[in-house]
Amino acid sequence: MRVLLVEDEKLLAEELVLYLGKEQMVCDWASTYAEASESLAVNQYDFIFLDLGLPDGDGLDLLAESKTYQKHALVIILTARADVDDRVRGLEMGADDYLSKPFSFLELKARMQAILRRKSGWNKEEIKIGGFVLDLDSWMVAFQGEKILLTKKEFSLLHFLLIHPNRVINRFQLAEHIWGDHMEDDYQSNYIDVHIKNIRKKLGSYASVKWLETVRGVGYKIKT
Ligand code: CA
């Protein structure tokens, strides 16, 4: 999960980046409108957390920009503004939810999961495929109640593919998803192949993983 946090309150931003990192998300932080605008133009995000009151512009204008560049990003507005009009306008402009500051990080996480469930049609905190169950709370995969140990990166890759079913996700997108801007220059796309191979090996000893397809020369796809 790759996230853009647009927030000019340094302390809040730093704490949130730390929290999201622990939750296995890659988080880019933009503290100004200009920085956020640049990030929106060059990276693809799964979630955007958007503060409305920025030193050099209005978050609602960024929301409009995000709709141009970020076709799949889900937007949560973070606002201290008492004015409900901004929130309503934000939702009308396509934001998926909003949170009033101060908010608990656990609530933010719960909102994210609720949005993902709503968007994907899943109604539980778990994803099921081919007899396997991914528990999004504990980051565990199980088959008929038996727990399968995946590394954090393996789980993260599998989860990312599963929330984009029937779409080809290329190796670069997958690498960016798990390493983000920290992706090393000497990054090799076969790192992803190695992780996928391990996922197949681990899950494959329980049941068929035919639903995890290789798209030759491109990447991977979950077929449902
Ligand atoms: Ca602010």
Distance between the termini: 21 Å
Q: Give the beta-strand count.
A: 14
Binned, the helix content reads: 40-55%
Strand content: 15-25%
Please trace the helix and strand order, writing H or E for each element.
EHEHEEEHEHEHEEEEHEHHEE
Widest sheet, order of strands? 2-1-3-6-7
What is the average per-residue confidence, as pLDDT, rounded to a whole number?
Answer: 88
What is the molecular shape? elongated
Category by helix and strand content: alpha/beta
- Low-confidence residue ranges: none
Describe the structure in your own words.
It is a single chain. The strands form 4 sheets. Strands 2-1-3-6-7 form a 5-stranded parallel beta sheet, with helices on both faces. It has a 4-stranded antiparallel beta sheet with strand order 8-9-10-11, covered by helices on one side. The two termini are 21 Å apart. With 224 residues, the chain is an alpha/beta fold. The model has no long low-confidence stretch (mean pLDDT 88). It has helices at residues 10-22, 33-42, 59-69, 84-92, 105-120, 152-162, 171-179, 190-204, and strands spanning 2-6, 26-30, 47-51, 53-54, 57-58, 74-79, 97-100, 126-129, 132-135, 140-143, 146-148, 169-170, 212-215, 219-222. Strand 9 (132-135) and strand 10 (140-143) form a beta hairpin. Helix 6 (152-162) packs across helix 8 (190-204). Calcium ion binds at residues 8-9, 51, 53-54.
Brief sketch in words of this structure:
The protein has 224 residues and is an alpha/beta fold.
